[in-house]
Amino acid sequence: MAETVLLALLLSALGGVLAGRAWARSRRRSYTLDRSGFRGSIHWIHGLDSLAAGRPGPALTALSKVAREFPESFDLQVVLGRLLRETGQVEKAIQTHQALSGRPDLNRTERSFVISSLGEDYRRAGLVDRATLAFEEALRIDPRNVHAVAGRQKLLEDQALWTEAAEEREAISRLRKSDDSLVLAFLYTEQAHIAARAGRLEAAEHGYRRALAVDSRVFPARLGLAAVVARKDPQRATEVLEKAIDAEPQRAYLAFEALATLYGILGEPGRFERRCEQLIRKNPRDWRARVALARHLRERGSSEEAHGLLLKAVEANPQVLLVHLEMWKTLEALGILTESQHRYVETARQAVFYRDPHVCTACRYRAQEMLWRCPHCHEWGTFIEEGPAPGAG
Ligand SMILES: [Zn+2]
């Protein structure tokens, strides 16, 4: 969807340029509308209208008709190629961009743009080598083609080459004078994860701290830092996690497991209960803290107390499936379910598909868990918990 929005922006920009030129001409021609070329086609209007409405399929159909009438139009072919890629017709997008790149009438900027679009098609098709070559060629023709640098950077991310991807992102940030700190912080975090996995704890700690210094919103850096620090100093690791929860209580649940373990190591399991109670006091709708606390209590034999907590959670968030799942487990632990109720619970539990839905705010991709990089649109930090539908209370 983000790509579609981008595309809509691209088209509206293009439309704006055309409209601007048309307006200037219309001034000269005493307000007669310019309907020369493809702008005279009703399919062009339909195509733009569909794009503005976020419907790439009908837009593609309409603009394909215009393109058949006006095959020489460069702008149209560019838009069409992009639409083909966005609607999953990557092979046709490649053909369109290849045909465009062979045209002798393109200037340097146009040629470079078309070749980097071709690179993007290859990237989408998983043809890493061809994509790399295309982006390099695009940059040889026009070293200031940000589109190509951005494509090459995404390609490095796809290959999990985090150091190179971060360097490229820094270059992009300088080139377009943009604030890329959030993405950079995620990339530094990925670098630190690799160091941590390889047992290079000092480098990992340094990497996580660097990420947090660039952008403190990167929660996985806090989790990673706590895990690294915990190996030598559980008390300090606990402090890292407590600070993380204070900074971002809506992400606190991601730290619960590690925190409960650390409190256990420190011989203070009661601290976990107090932490959860504190979160619930601050936000009575925090069902995750209630569920975590209920689980903690049930595992320690206090199923009655867990049941009371979950009843409140069901009242506050009846739409959340995980609350019901936890309640079923607690009812089972209380031993009050009949045989047929057991069967119902088991059947319902297995039928559940999206237990814990998270959604990408950029492209609406859904996942069962919090993801830091969207596997569909490849954006960073776009996932949120999927909330109840409006009006669901
Ligand atoms: Zn996405």
What is the structure about, briefly put?
The chain is mostly helical. It has 19 helices and 3 strands. The relative contact order is 0.05.
CATH-derived topology of the domain at 179-268: Serine Threonine Protein Phosphatase 5, Tetratricopeptide repeat
Biggest beta sheet attributes: 3 strands, antiparallel
Number of strands: 3
Tell me the strand percentage band.
under 5%
Count the helices. How many? 19
- Radius of gyration computed on alpha carbons: 27 Å
Question: Shape, please?
Answer: globular
Distance between the termini: 27 Å
Low-confidence stretches: 1-6, 15-20, 389-393
What level of helicity do the residues show? Answer: 55-70%
Name of the CATH class of the domain at 179-268: Mainly Alpha
Strand and helix order:
HHHHHHHHHHHHHHHHHHHEEE
Cofactors and ligands present? zinc ion
Q: Could you explain how this protein is built, in words?
A:
This protein has 393 residues and is mainly alpha-helical. It is 69% helix and 2% strand. The chain contains 19 helices and three strands. A hairpin with a 5-residue loop joins strand 1 (358-360) and strand 2. The protein has a three-stranded antiparallel beta sheet, with no helix packed on it. The protein is globular. Among the domains are: 179-268, Tetratricopeptide repeat domain (Serine Threonine Protein Phosphatase 5, Tetratricopeptide repeat, Alpha Horseshoe); 269-351, Tetratricopeptide repeat domain (Serine Threonine Protein Phosphatase 5, Tetratricopeptide repeat), CATH 1.25.40.10; 353-393. It starts with a helix and ends in an 8-residue tail after the last strand. The model is unreliable at 1-6, 15-20 and 389-393 (pLDDT under 50). Bound molecules: zinc ion. Residues 360, 362-363, 365, 374, 376-377, 379, 382 line the site of zinc ion (ZN). Zinc ion (ZN) binds at residues 360, 362-363, 365, 374, 376-377, 379, 382.
